[in-house]
Design goal:
Blueprint lengths: L2 H15 L7 E5 L3 E6 L2 E7 L18 E5 L21 E2 L5 E3 L2 E3 L9 E14 L2 E13 L5 E16 L2 E12 L5 E3 L9 E3 L10 E4 L15 E6 L6 E7 L9 E4 L10 E5 L6 E3 L4 E12 L4 H12 L2
Antiparallel strand pairs: 1-2, 2-3, 3-4, 5-13, 6-7, 6-12, 8-9, 9-10, 10-11, 11-20, 12-19, 13-18, 14-15, 15-16, 16-20, 17-18
Length: 318
């Protein structure tokens, strides 16, 4: 089966799984996006189509393969994309930063550098039932050369599975990356990059939002700390809401260190990143495959540490 037929089949499967909104889950795929909702209320949107750079910005900021909006159970949007301070921040996303590949710095994160990017390739599968909706997509992490040539370094399967549990949207977020090139991808120690990243909606700042980690740390002291989970919370038009991200104990360097912003960083805007390489360098050899597992939980209201710890323990056992 050629790639075009495979892509078409996956798209048809996604459409077949979709149903009229009810109290259960719904999944719909278009050429532009995959949308998951529950009872007619949005849960998340994954972007297949390339989102162009904002007007007047460098075209290099174009990007596909990210989630926005990520929503609270109320339906309130919790993510932000392309804030003026960081045009490459794309809601809920991930990739590596400041890598070395064939002797050249390759940055898949900072798009303006024009040395790397990430893009959606095709939908691999979709699944939907009343109690969940799921999809798996293929993404490519691509090294860009000054002469315009491209090298696919990592071929990735990103698996997303959403359900509703204990009053929360629970989203399994699993990335499996294989180095399909003929050279090692070197990952020097750096303060951010690699694991799942979250940029909060516009308006969350040091006056109305905060972090809470499994170790009880906040905006003031969570950066560079290790944590099993981290939560971010602030106001929406439908009341307070929380995004919690849980790291699986099987992940490289677990419990992973965090990149968070303090009160002086962009007026205390919320940015969160689990970082597998913050303390120690890593590398992905040719032919090597790695998997990183996270769980993203959205809740109405502020975080409850005991509840999140119980959720982490259940996730850790899977």
């Amino acid at each position: 089966m050629n790639l075009m037929r495979s892509h078409l089949l996956a798209s048809l499967l996604c459409v077949a799984f979709a149903s009229a909104p009810g109290q259960g889950f719904d999944l719909k795929e278009t050429d532009a996006a995959i949308t998951i909702s529950r009872g007619g209320t949005p849960v998340l949107v994954y972007h297949k189509a390339e989102d162009p750079a904002p007007d007047g910005a460098d075209p290099a900021f174009k990007r596909s393969g990210f989630i926005h909006p990520l929503c609270a159970p109320s339906g309130a949007t919790l993510t932000g994309i392309r804030p003026p301070d960081h045009l490459h921040h794309m809601g809920l996303w991930h990739t590596w930063v400041h890598c070395m590949f064939k002797g050249q710095e390759t940055d898949f994160w900072n798009l303006k550098a024009k040395t790397g990017t990430v893009r959606f390739v095709k939908t691999l599968s979709c699944d939907k039932a009343d109690d969940h909706a799921a999809f798996t997509v293929e993404q490519e992490h691509v090294a860009l050369s000054k002469d315009g040539s491209e090298t696919v370094v990592l071929r990735e399967q990103l698996a997303i599975r959403a359900r509703f549990e204990g009053g929360a949207n629970v989203i399994d977020y699993t990335m499996t990356q294989k180095n399909v090139s003929d050279a090692t991808l070197e990952l020097p120690a750096y303060r951010y990059g690699g694991g799942v990243a979250f940029r909060a909606r516009t308006g969350w700042d040091k006056t109305n939002s905060d972090y809470l980690t499994s170790e009880g740390k906040t905006r003031l002291d969570s950066h560079q700390s290790r944590a099993r989970w981290g939560a971010m919370f602030g106001p929406t038009e439908k009341g307070d809401a929380t995004v919690a991200i849980l790291g699986h104990p099987s992940n490289h360097d677990a419990p992973q260190r965090l990149r968070t912003w303090g009160p002086k960083d962009n007026n205390g805007a919320i940015f969160f990143n689990f970082v597998p390489i913050q303390e120690t360098a890593w590398a992905i050899q040719p032919g090597q495959q790695i998997t990183l597992r996270y769980q993203v939980i959205t809740l109405d209201g502020k975080p409850d540490a005991a509840n999140l710890e119980a959720r982490w323990k259940a996730f850790a056992e899977k």
